Amino acid sequence: MAKWGQGDPRWIVEEREDGTNVNNWHWTERDATSWSKGKLHELLVGIAVENEAGRCEISELKQVEGEASCSSRKGKLIFFYEWNIKLGWKGIIKESGAKHKGLIEIPNLSEENEVDDTEVNVSKKKGDGNILKDLMKTAGTAKVREALGDYLKALKTEFTMGMILPTKAMATQELTVKRKLSETTLQASSPVALGVRIPTVALHMTELFDTAIEQLYRIFTVKDLVQKFSKSPAVLEAEKGRKFQMFDGNISGEYVELLTNKKIVMKWRCRNWPEEHYAIVALNFVPTLGQTELQLDCKGVPVCEEENMKFCWQKQHFEEIQGLLQLITLNG
């Protein structure tokens, strides 16, 4: 029997005051239903196919019933999804200009079947136009299956970001690699624990929002609104010197400067970055004609995290905020 504290590290659960799921031991689960509905709509609606005879396009998502979730246990991700999907399509015959409509039904998209084996049924309203139905049954079905495959890839990568946390051993290895890089060929620009300096990059991104500058500023500084667009718990009080956490603690930092409706500057980091390393994120709110342009400038992003950083802001911030603004507008 192993002595206390000398067991296999894969089976050791470290105690943490902040409750972090160290070594990914504990069972965690995240509901992917709402996110999945939005992603399926994004990927399926607008699919178009065309040949010499006609052109067809998926025009609406009529029904999406089911659920999806992702669970983590002992460092492994387990996915569950089961969907019944109905799509509306429309098409036009080039020679005659005749227009036709139909349905695409996907009765069982689930983890029990491969995407290529998923049943996709195409139908058309009564009348002529079978040439369009044939186009949708061949090229259209292929594109639908491709989109379903993209959904599953996003579910297993985009949605699960931050669910598997680095273990202590992984973090030590990563820090060692970065130390060697910084000591040999790469120039550093930001200090980390133990005096190690890592290579970093700067990012600049812009996004136009169809809302008043005051509303957009509130979305970044009001806890309830932050939790709505991030779809996860947040801890924040938007005042200079105050710390914050978002996305279940996977993003954290500190407010450096706040100019109401003009500018927010933050120390900002992802949980899996080298210990105590922060980037500096500056958000500038620029009024335009009836809209607001958000200018993001970020310095000190680890080189190996550049693409993840872009993804995080584009997909998990900008696009989610656009969706929240649409809901706010619909609800009046």
Automatic annotation (TrEMBL):
Occurrences of domain Activator of Hsp90 ATPase AHSA1-like N-terminal (ranges): 29-163
Keywords: Stress response
Coiled-coil zones: none
Superkingdom assignment: Eukaryota
Record bears the keyword Oxidoreductase: no
InterPro entries xref list: Aha1, AHSA1-like_N, ASHA1/2-like_C, START-like_dom_sf
Transmembrane segments: none
Pfam families: Aha1_N, AHSA1
Family, similarity comment: Belongs to the AHA1 family.
UniProt protein name: Activator of 90 kDa heat shock protein ATPase homolog 2 isoform X2
